[in-house]
């Protein structure tokens, strides 16, 4: 992968999703059925010709029994990811504690960009720099997300509306939020300027409560 102008490395998400899907023996049509999208859309994602929403991506991760970090955390140039489960009774070693600004893995979705802030694969937390373009959202208004874990966000710039259950909170620069990710939620930027934030999703994989995702 070639670094972008900002020094980040775009992630070949589609190829990683396809590898994980095939490893788990799921057909393209079956994965599409489970996440409630068309087979052609899943095909376009796997070919790198379409970007999923955040909500669709989390649904895909849930159905594949994997995490964002499993797909992109250990991805290296020119090689597919190795999906390895860390032992539940041990802490994974940290080989590279520093992730320089140059070289961060960058994942582009539909109006939303995630950049990974850990260099090593981390099975315990998704630690991300996120960007929401004007008019973008994590999911459709009638398809709120639910998944395991707990989320923590800190806004660096711009504004972001966050619906958690029946409440909607408008956050500006310097504001922060945390909530149970099992509560239906949606992030959106209905404003005229981009929003940037630092985001954590803690213990998404280890949360064994049923998510309710179909």
UniProtKB/TrEMBL annotation:
<feature type="domain" description="HTH cro/C1-type">
    <location>
        <begin position="17"/>
        <end position="71"/>
    </location>
</feature>
<dbReference type="InterPro" id="IPR013096">
    <property type="entry name" value="Cupin_2"/>
</dbReference>
<dbReference type="InterPro" id="IPR014710">
    <property type="entry name" value="RmlC-like_jellyroll"/>
</dbReference>
<dbReference type="InterPro" id="IPR011051">
    <property type="entry name" value="RmlC_Cupin_sf"/>
</dbReference>
<dbReference type="InterPro" id="IPR050807">
    <property type="entry name" value="TransReg_Diox_bact_type"/>
</dbReference>
<dbReference type="InterPro" id="IPR001387">
    <property type="entry name" value="Cro/C1-type_HTH"/>
</dbReference>
<dbReference type="Pfam" id="PF01381">
    <property type="entry name" value="HTH_3"/>
</dbReference>
<keyword id="KW-0238">DNA-binding</keyword>
<protein>
    <submittedName>
        <fullName>Helix-turn-helix domain-containing protein</fullName>
    </submittedName>
</protein>
<dbReference type="InterPro" id="IPR010982">
    <property type="entry name" value="Lambda_DNA-bd_dom_sf"/>
</dbReference>
<dbReference type="Pfam" id="PF07883">
    <property type="entry name" value="Cupin_2"/>
</dbReference>
